[in-house]
Specification:
single chain, alpha/beta, Rossmann fold, Arc Repressor Mutant, subunit A, 5-stranded parallel β-sheet, 4-stranded antiparallel β-sheet, 11 strands, about 40% helix, about 20% strand, phosphorelay response regulator activity, phosphoprotein, transcription, Transcriptional activator protein CopR, two-component regulatory system
Length: about 220
């Protein structure tokens, strides 16, 4: 899942980006509304976390412009403004939820999960392919009777594969969805994580679920 974080308080921005990445999210972080507008024009996001008070183009103005384009990406508004009038202003501008600073990180995660469960963003909480079962709320993975432990990045790659089961995904598409916009790591990183997943999910089983489609990418499905 890919998130755009728009927050001009550098320490808070870096802390949130780090904690969200540790929780398995791909996060692009920017510090002003104009830069956020450029990112939104270039990339697709599953969620936007938007600070109200931004230099240049403020969060409410950016949100209003964003909604006028008929884009429906969920927006979680962050602000120190806590009176009813400000909440109404933020929600009327197009925010889907409103979180008052300071806040607990666990509450932020809970609100992200809640936004993803709303109509129009409904995602299955558990998906099974053959005897592989992935639960996204508890972030647990089992194959048959075997409990499988994954790193946050391994889980993110598996989630993208299983939510798109039967669809061939190129390395570029996986990288774009899982890693940050400014990622500059090895071009072999997708191969490495696919190898990690195969070792944990497929190696002990006769039925293989993660397949390579030569020249095209990878697909997770029961039969190729």
């Amino acid at each position: 899942m890919r998130i755009l974080l728009v927050e001009d308080e550098r320490d808070l921005q870096q802390l949130l980006k780090k904690r969200l990445a540790q929780s398995g999210y791909a996060v692009d972080a920017v510090a002003d509304g104009w830069e956020a507008q450029d990112y939104l024009a270039a990339m697709q996001y599953d969620l936007i976390i938007l600070d109200w008070m931004l230099p240049g183009l403020d969060g409410i103005s950016l949100l209003a412009k964003f909604r006028r384009t008929d884009l429906t990406t969920p927006v979680l508004l962050l602000t120190a403004k806590d009176n009813i009038e400000d909440r109404v202003t933020g929600l009327d501008a197009g925010a889907d939820d409103y979180l008052i600073k300071p806040f607990a990180f666990d509450e932020l995660l809970a609100r992200i999960r809640a936004l993803m469960r709303r109509p129009g963003n409904v995602r299955a909480d558990t998906i099974c392919v053959a005897d592989l079962m992935v639960n996204f709320s508890s972030r647990t993975v089992t194959r048959g009777e075997k409990q499988i432990s994954l790193s946050s990045k391994e889980f993110a790659v598996l989630e993208y594969l299983i939510r798109n089961q039967g669809i061939v995904l190129s390395k570029e598409k996986i990288e774009e969805h899982i890693w940050n916009y400014d990622f500059s790591g090895s071009s072999n990183v997708i191969n490495v994580y696919i190898r990690y997943l195969r070792k944990k999910i497929d190696d002990d089983f006769d039925l293989k679920l993660i397949h390579t489609v030569r020249g095209a990418g990878y697909v997770l499905q029961e039969r190729l």
